[in-house]
Amino acid sequence: MSVNGYTDASDRLNPTGYLKVARVPFLLLPVTLTVVGAAASAYAGAFDLLHTSLALVGLVLLHVSVNALNEYSDWRRGIDEETEPTKFSGGSKALVEEEVKPKGALALGLGTLFVAFVIGLYFLYVYGAAMAVFIVVGGALVVGYTDLFARTGLGEVSAGLGLGALPVVGVGFVQSGSVEPVVLAASVPCFFLTFNLLLLNEFPDVEADTKGGRTNLVTLLGETRAKYAYVGVVALCALSIVALSAAGFLPVWSIGALAGFVLLRRPVSAAFRDAEITEAALGGNVGWVIVTNLLLGASFVLPLFL
Length: 306
What we know:
By secondary structure, this protein is mainly alpha-helical.
């Protein structure tokens, strides 16, 4: 709106607010997943730099889309007004504090989704109908996460698939138009990692999520049992790396990814003691996910130089 030729400050573009809505610090996750998928495919003998770069851009845009649509939905349902944000949970508050208009967050979510879709169409042209599976499933996970999966007890599973396993498999697929067994194997621990990334981040927001109609593992199981579930998924992640390496589906070097588990001291300790999930515990959980993904990716590259 303008008054005497001047633009009201509330109508101006606020880049900082949009960066908050995009949750930029969280965008390191799709980068690490791209590393895993591309490195695993290279280990199997297929690597395309252009396609890897396009896949990375597409995954980052899809993650921005999920974050922006989630912010919009949480504002619409009043969830973000009830949360006490940490660096890792509670939303950005950009809409609540009017740094970005709700329609701006919605436009960001839909716009980034559209550009990612265009990238998907390029791969559809190159590789044919098989790529349609990734486009349809990936799009459904992005659009359905906040208002469907997160409200029906499937949020953690959809995150593990859409922001864990599927990106790894998709990045592997666009290298050559096929998915190597080692890429599928690499996607398994990535599923568990992202599953737990979301699960622990839900603890500080449990009251607000409940009021806003969300149904996740913390609300379904209660905080104590959900903490045990978190520890159980940690164990499954470690077991998957060891078992798949021992069976030859992953290189033996992949066991080295377990070094990232040292970052779990605070979150696992809090879970075992049924203590409060603090920001330090959340940070340890995020660090575990990022570092373990990177170490897993490195395990495919290292044998290429030996």
